[in-house]
């Protein structure tokens, strides 16, 4: 080594030692069960870290303190659109030659600035054609979805982002050994974003907009915010933006927005998982420390929103069922009000013993009512919502809900309800902090809303001091006639405008192109994580009750909660009345306790019970605070044995059920779900296998209760996860779970059967909207083989999974046909059922044929790329290695394997087989099972807007009515 090289090496060593020796100061709060460390780097970047070693993974959130609140008024939707653009790459990745690409992107940007000023339709078409042509030239350098390739390469999952009024947040769940690679990618992404693939991504966002306008709740929220915040961006603009602004975007405004708000002193990195805090903050500083802060960071300021003094009403129209929403404006999330608002909203509704739960829903005073709070950076809300019963007006629903507010103001609620609410909030908190995603959510919420971490940690200390008088006084100060009422009525929305599809030339996918940045990442080799798969012989313990019932046991050593499940091997396939008997139980008590008293008792114990009925199984579950398991179990068993028939309650229940059925027929997603079930299974399926309205009305409720009481006398198994020893669990079950001396064999039922697709056919159900929902299905009756599961998993990863998959690239990136598109090769959940293929897309009506042709093209000739395949294999391998199944998940995995007729963890088989699988194996798998096969096309849409003649050339059309697909 020469002297110059030696000097350089010494200098590097000194720099390295200095970096390692840097003393990173952090804030922490005594009593924080997560032991959170909050660092502030020299450039103002906040870093929240907490350690949770349950799994070798880390949840990562990067939160920017900006959202649609800061959108320029002339280009609303910009924050959300920038969120999409952040996945398009940088000067280092997403391109094969950034220097040659740059002038082309600049030219596209300039043309869009002209395009957005044009009003003549022909001028706009001419300009758009020029943009489309220029985009084709730029696309020769574009490498779509390299960001997703990078994340796949490190074994990330949950690659996503979201935008709200005050926040834009980017999410990843990464293996714990990939922190450095993750930081390297994110630091480049947040400092060197490039706007590319613009016109196709813009159309994908517009498809997302189309999905939203078919959802009436979006209209309700928009109207409510407009009345609550009339002179503030919360109320004057939406996160998705307007139709006009989405069709007239400004890349200049996007870049300016990015430069203004995407600065380190406006960002927090929030990590929770299996990490070393000292090492992690050093890595983050190394990659993000050079990011330049903006000392002049500022935000638009607005006059305070005036407080309402009288009710303000507004109405929205849409196809879906009627409902009413009421809202009161409150102070910001970081205010002293927040604790009171949270407790108060759970006093009103907590799902068990709240005022709405017991006074309204228990007595079925309307079809459904609820209450919740919503915290924002500058303001907050208490929100009530209600759906009417048949023949009930929305004003009558309003009276019912406001009566509860009146009771709250008068203190007409149980004295101990406040304590019960706080105890259950604590229980939920203890459960949440075991989840890395929930921890990171708390950090994001605190950062975005400027909440000191000490206030989060000490929240329950403050709440514990609340008195009934505090709640009453607060309610009287804030919840009077100062609300907004949004009436959602059923009808045709005349404001919706049809926009013809743009003429977009498909851009190349460039699958085999790869940037040096990605190549280097793929070649990096961090210390590997060793996989750990389940062994059902050792990860579960097995026992038997005195009566011989099998007990499967997993000890929960991380918290004081339990789940106890009695599982029966029959369900609605054996008796379609079982789900209705289970639902009816919710309205009943016993001769000793009313339904209201029963729910209050469970809530006071911080426990709950649930009876859930599936197709071929049924579960009776008791869960909650482990110290109260025996009492909760005894309470559940007494109730199920002594439930008292209430004929009047049954009649009300049936009326609500019939109204709910009617409402579902107005909902686009519910219609598509019904069509899909009809196409997949035929007329005998889970949605149609229900008693008709007449049968419901005529049924004697006594028979339903007798049905419930008889369940315990059938053969069943016991599953438990909690801190108690197995002997304690068996003792409690023996004592409280009374059954017949000899249990009856479970009844057999007629299983739902997936229908084969021997010929091409189109199944159309009607729904008037600006978009269509479509799925294609092929089923040739091929039975599941565990030996092929590795090919199934790898095919789904390569072909129809994330942003780097064939489907995403071809349907969205290349052709801009959809916001929502995927494909999957499904394997059964029960032995004896077949595998089948499904493709899915939601798109504008006039794009339907383009969608069909594009899907059929990639089905009949699967695009092949060795690089994309190796990336898919690497991603799947790393995810399996870092996966861990814990707590009740172990029992669920055991049940799943048992249902398939195997006694081992299928993931281990997949992992061990992955190294030997080649691209040619996956291609042959697809050709054998999907290519050139007959498909059933299930389309939900408005025939008036569809090219029926062209559809008839594809396959014969069979029309089904709304009543047919729902079965009532």
Helices and strands in order, then pairings?
Blueprint: H1 3-21, E1 26-27, E2 37-40, E3 46-51, E4 57-64, H2 78-85, H3 98-115, H4 121-139, H5 146-153, E5 157-163, E6 168-175, H6 179-191, H7 198-213, H8 216-228, H9 233-236, H10 243-246, H11 251-261, E7 267-273, H12 277-288, E8 312-318, E9 323-330, H13 337-348, H14 355-361, E10 368-375, E11 380-387, H15 394-410, H16 417-432, H17 436-448, H18 453-457, H19 459-463, H20 468-478, E12 483-490, H21 516-523, E13 541-544, E14 550-555, E15 561-568, H22 578-585, H23 595-604, E16 607-613, E17 618-625, H24 629-642, H25 647-664, H26 668-681, H27 693-698, H28 701-711, E18 716-722, H29 726-736, E19 761-766, E20 771-778, H30 789-800, H31 806-814, E21 820-826, E22 836-844, H32 848-860, H33 866-882, H34 888-900, H35 906-913, H36 919-929, E23 936-941, H37 948-954, E24 957-959, H38 962-966
Parallel strand pairs: 3-7, 8-12, 14-18, 19-23, 19-24
Antiparallel strand pairs: 1-2, 2-3, 4-6, 4-7, 5-6, 9-11, 9-12, 10-11, 13-14, 15-17, 15-18, 16-17, 20-22, 20-23, 21-22
Helix pairs in contact: 2-11, 3-4, 5-33, 6-12, 13-16, 15-20, 22-28, 30-33, 30-35, 30-36, 31-32
């Amino acid at each position: 080594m020469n002297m110059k090289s030696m000097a350089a090496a010494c200098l590097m060593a000194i720099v390295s030692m200095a970096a390692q020796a840097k003393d990173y100061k952090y804030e922490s709060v005594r009593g924080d069960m997560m032991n959170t460390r909050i660092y502030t780097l020299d450039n103002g970047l906040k870093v929240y870290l907490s350690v949770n070693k349950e799994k070798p993974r880390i949840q990562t959130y990067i939160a920017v303190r900006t959202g649609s609140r800061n959108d320029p008024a002339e280009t609303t939707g910009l924050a959300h659109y920038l969120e999409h653009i952040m996945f398009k790459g940088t000067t280092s990745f997403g391109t094969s030659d950034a220097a040659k690409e740059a002038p082309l992107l600049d030219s596209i940007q300039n043309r869009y600035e002209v395009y957005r000023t044009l009003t003549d339709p022909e001028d706009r078409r001419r300009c758009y054609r020029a943009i489309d042509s220029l985009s084709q030239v730029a696309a020769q350098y574009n490498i779509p979805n390299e960001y997703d390739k990078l994340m796949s390469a490190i074994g990330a999952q949950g690659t996503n982002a979201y935008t709200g009024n005050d926040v834009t947040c980017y999410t990843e769940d990464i293996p714990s050994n990939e922190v450095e690679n993750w930081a390297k990618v994110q630091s480049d992404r947040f400092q060197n974003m490039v706007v590319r693939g613009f016109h196709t991504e813009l159309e994908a966002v517009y498809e997302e907009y189309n999905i939203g306008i078919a959802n009436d709740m979006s209209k309700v929220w928009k109207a409510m915010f407009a009345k609550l915040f009339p002179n503030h961006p919360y109320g004057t603009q939406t996160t998705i933006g307007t139709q006009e602004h989405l069709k007239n975007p400004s890349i200049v405004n996007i870049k300016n927005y990015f430069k203004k708000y995407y600065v380190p002193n406006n960002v927090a990195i929030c990590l929770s998982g299996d990490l070393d805090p000292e090492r992690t903050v050093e890595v983050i500083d190394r990659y993000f420390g050079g990011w330049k802060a903006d000392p002049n960071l500022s935000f638009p300021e607005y006059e305070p929103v005036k407080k309402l003094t009288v009710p303000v009403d507004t109405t929205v129209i849409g196809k879906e069922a009627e409902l009413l929403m009421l809202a009161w404006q409150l102070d910001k999330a970081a205010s002293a009000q927040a604790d009171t608002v949270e407790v108060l909203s759970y006093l009103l509704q907590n799902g068990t013993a709240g005022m709405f739960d017991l006074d309204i829903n228990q007595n079925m005073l309307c079809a459904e009512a609820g209450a919740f709070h919503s915290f924002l950076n500058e303001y907050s809300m208490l929100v009530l919502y209600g759906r009417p019963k048949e023949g009930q007006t929305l004003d009558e629903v309003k009276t019912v809900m406001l009566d509860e507010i009146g009771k709250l103001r008068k203190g007409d609620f149980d004295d101990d309800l406040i304590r019960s609410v706080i105890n259950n909030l604590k229980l939920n908190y203890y459960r949440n902090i075991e989840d890395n995603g929930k921890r990171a959510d708390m950090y994001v919420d605190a950062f975005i809303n400027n909440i000191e971490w000490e206030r989060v940690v000490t929240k329950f200390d403050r709440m514990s001091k609340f008195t009934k008088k505090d709640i009453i006084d607060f309610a009287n100060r804030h919840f009077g006639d100062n609300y907004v009422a949004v009436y959602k009525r059923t009808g045709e929305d005349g404001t919706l405008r049809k926009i013809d599809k743009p003429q977009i030339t498909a851009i190349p996918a460039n699958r085999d192109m790869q940037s040096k940045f990605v190549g280097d990442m793929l070649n990096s080799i961090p210390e590997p994580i060793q996989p750990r798969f389940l062994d059902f012989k050792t990860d579960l313990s097995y026992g038997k009750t005195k009566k011989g019932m099998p007990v499967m046991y997993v000890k929960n050593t991380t918290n004081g909660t339990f789940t106890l499940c009695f599982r029966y091997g029959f369900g609605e396939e054996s008796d379609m009345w079982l789900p209705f008997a289970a639902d009816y139980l919710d309205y009943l008590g016993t001769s000793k306790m009313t339904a209201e008293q029963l729910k209050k008792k469970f809530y006071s114990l911080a426990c709950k019970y649930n009876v859930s009925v599936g197709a071929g199984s049924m579960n009776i579950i008791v869960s909650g605070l482990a110290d109260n398991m025996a009492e909760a179990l005894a309470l559940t068993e007494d109730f199920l044995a002594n439930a008292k028939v209430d004929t009047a309650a049954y009649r009300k229940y049936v009326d609500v059920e019939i109204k709910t059925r009617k409402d579902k027929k107005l909902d686009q997603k519910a219609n598509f779900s019904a069509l899909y079930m009809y196409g997949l299974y035929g007329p005998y399926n889970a949605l149609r296998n229900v008693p008709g309205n007449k049968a419901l009305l005529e049924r004697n409720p006594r028979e339903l209760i007798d049905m419930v009481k008889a369940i315990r006398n059938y053969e069943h198994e016991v599953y438990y996860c909690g801190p108690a020893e197995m002997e304690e669990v068996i003792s409690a079950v023996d004592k409280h779970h009374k059954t017949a001396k000899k249990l009856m064999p479970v009844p057999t039922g007629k299983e739902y059967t997936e229908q084969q697709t021997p010929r091409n056919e189109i199944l159309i159900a009607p729904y008037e909207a600006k978009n269509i929902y479509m799925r294609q299905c092929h089923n040739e009756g091929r039975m599941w083989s565990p030996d092929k599961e590795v090919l199934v998993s790898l095919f789904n990863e390569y072909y129809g999974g994330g942003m780097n998959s064939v489907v995403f690239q071809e349907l969205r990136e290349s052709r801009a046909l959809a916001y929502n598109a995927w494909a999957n090769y499904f394997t059964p959940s029960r032995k004896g059922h077949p595998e089948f293929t499904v493709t899915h897309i939601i798109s504008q009506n006039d794009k339907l044929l383009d969608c069909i042709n594009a899907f059929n093209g990639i089905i009949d000739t699967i695009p092949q790329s060795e690089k994309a395949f190796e990336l898919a294999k690497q991603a799947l391998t790393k995810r399996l290695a870092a996966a861990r199944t814990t707590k009740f998940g172990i029992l669920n995995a055991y049940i799943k394997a048992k249902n398939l007729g195997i006694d081992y963890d299928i993931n281990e088989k997949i992992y061990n087989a992955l190294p030997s699988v080649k691209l040619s194996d996956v291609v042959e798998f697809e050709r054998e099972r999907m290519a050139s096969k007959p498909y059933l096309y299930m389309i939900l849409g408005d025939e008036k807007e569809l090219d029926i003649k062209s559809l008839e050339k594809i396959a014969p059309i069979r029309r089904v009515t709304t009543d047919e697909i729902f079965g009532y």
